[in-house]
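It would be a great kindness if you could assist me with a short task in structural biology. The matter concerns a single protein, recorded as an amino acid sequence and a row of backbone structure tokens. Could you please explain, in whatever detail you think fit, how the structure tokens follow from the sequence? Thank you for your consideration; the sequence and its tokens are set out here:
___
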Amino acid sequence: MSVVSMRDLLEAGVHFGHSKGRWNPKMAPYLYGVRTNIHIVDLNKTVVCIEQAYNFIADSVAAGAQVLFVGTKKQAKDVIKEEAERCGMPYINERWVGGLLTNFRTVRKSLQKLHTLERMETEGVFEVLPKKEVRELRRKMERLRKLYGGILKMDRLPAIMWVVDTVREELAVMEAKKKGVKVVAIADSNCDPDLMDFPIPGNDDAIKSIRLLTAKIADAVIEGSQRREHLGETATEVARRTVITVEEEEKILFEKAMQMSEKYEYIDKGAEDE
């Protein structure tokens, strides 16, 4: 059974590309043709590509990989946040900060500052500080939240990055390539598919299209997470059974030792009677 149906793709408008004059010739293998000067995406290719991406993400997450969701354009912001939170993954939906991947050590310092400020607020430290200083600290905290709120719990570089609009998020894609982060992204008719490890041909402008494709990526993450949890439970069960087996073996050995002890006691007693 395919990850997404052709009907769902059509209803979400995934097949609409950009105008003919804005296309990238490298996208030719993924395009069906031109209608009223608009490139039409070949949805047969989309079905195949999203299935490949889905399986890759599910398998990777099951093995412990982390997926970073990226989309800062107006149509993608809310979807990126909702779907990333639904599957428990980090996200960037406001602005890509240069060096987020290539200089992650510095970014972690900003995350630590945000952690500290939030702890100060929670523990009531702001209540005893001068109002002017509190206002400044709150402004700093809000600015950090806007930039890094979605990656607050990202303690390491992600293994995979889901991107909506690689043309707009060019810097993010370039950093991902430098750091060996796999890029899974919507490949609209104006994109360069060579920059993506798993291009998914489709419309990266329509909200319905973005929501449908991003939701499928989130579903893949959830499936991978469930598999990982199941594997962890299985390993625990195997370990528990192993412990029980060892205990049973010890019990058997103890019973044999007692039987041998009784046997020798009987022999010794017989010798004394003689």
